[in-house]
Amino acid sequence: MSVLSTLRHPIIAAPMAGGPSTPALVAAVCAAGGLGFLAAGMIDTGRLTDDIAEVRARTDRPFGVNVFLPDPGGVDEAAIQAYAERLAPQAAARGVRLGEPVGGDDAYPAKLAALLADPVPVVSFAFGLPTGRRWPRCASAAPRCGPR
Question: Which UniProt keywords apply (predicted)?
Fold first, then answer.
């Protein structure tokens, strides 16, 4: 039986990176009969594991975690700089300063390791799917996933 077939309502709360997808929101969506999602993107691994523990403390319903998959091709620094230069006049006109681009792998290896060590019912990926050595490890964790 899939997790989706256990939902009372066909509602999935989107994972919103950077903080809006709180454990309280995820648990509330689950309590209402939907599937709540934590966002692993733009938070550190410690916060992710703490958030997962808090969701589990708040609900026994299934929930998910969405993980940002790093771009294996790297970043086009020239394209980022050109984009920032195009935005600069608009930012200046509004009295704001452009932030510095943040790159990297978003601690993907550590987040994936945490999810493999303590699986959650559903894991989704943004920007692609894991490949190579990581994919079999994800798939083999699936039978352990399910409502706790």
Answer: Membrane, Monooxygenase, Oxidoreductase, Transmembrane, Transmembrane helix
CATH code 3.20.20.70 region(s) in the chain: 4-70+105-144
Residue carrying the six token digits 């550590």:
110
Q: What pTM, to 2 d.p., does this model score?
A: 0.81
pLDDT by residue (tens digit) across 86-131? Answer: 999 999 999 999 988 777 889 999 999 999 999 999 999 998 888 7
* CATH superfamily ID and name for 4-70+105-144: Aldolase class I (3.20.20.70)
Q: How does residue 143 score in pLDDT terms, banded at 50, 70 and 90? A: very low
User: What span, in angstroms and rounded, lies between the C-alpha atoms of 127 and 141?
Assistant: 21
Q: Let me know: does 37 contact 65? Beta carbons within 8 Å.
A: yes
Helix (H, G, I), strand (E, B) or coil at 125: strand
